[in-house]
Amino acid sequence: MGQYLIYLALIIIIPIWAQMRVKKTYKRYSKVRNESNMTGAEVARKILDDNGLSNVQVEEVKGMLSDHYDPRSKVVRLSSGNYHEPSAAAQAVAAHEVGHAIQDAEAYAFLRFRHALVPVASFGSNASIFLIIAGAFFSQVLLGVGIAFFALAVLFQFVTLPVEFNASSRAMNQLVSTGIIRNNEERQTKKVLNAAAWTYVASALVALLELVRLVLLFTGMNED
Asked: For this UniProt entry, which segments traverse the membrane (predicted)?
């Protein structure tokens, strides 16, 4: 019972901690004006053009921290605050999303692998819930299949990690090489990027813990 409570605490606390950290860091640096006086949209446009990606558009999207790169439409979408504001947070987030656009243009291996996994991981995540519940009551075979499907979703989470860290690394390199950031802004930018990265690490860790629990449940049933 004690071990289960520890497990339950971990899967609840880890993602909450990661989300609180990124929101706190983002809120802090969204109030810090960047030295270039460039909005997130302007930062994204400059880096894209400097890398020969004039075909990639930059658009505003509703929501907070809803920023993303759409590889199908070739569009970098920035949340309203990041799109319009010349803040330290906005330039970091914009550069990160452009990092994904550069990955796409260069056919970055992990990004291609993640794209290939999307339909499989999505199906696996949805189907695994029903199979695991049914398997726990009726059939070890169904439970095993459900765990295998869930493992695909976990794999997707871990493939996402190098994609996100690489995009952040590209963001830093681009911001420095283009002269958009200078002096103490490098430290600020790294804090924003690192805080965001921890949300992906937390998600992957929680998914792994759940997979381990399910595997232990399955092996325990077999022993019985």
From this structure: 6-22, 116-137, 143-163, 197-218
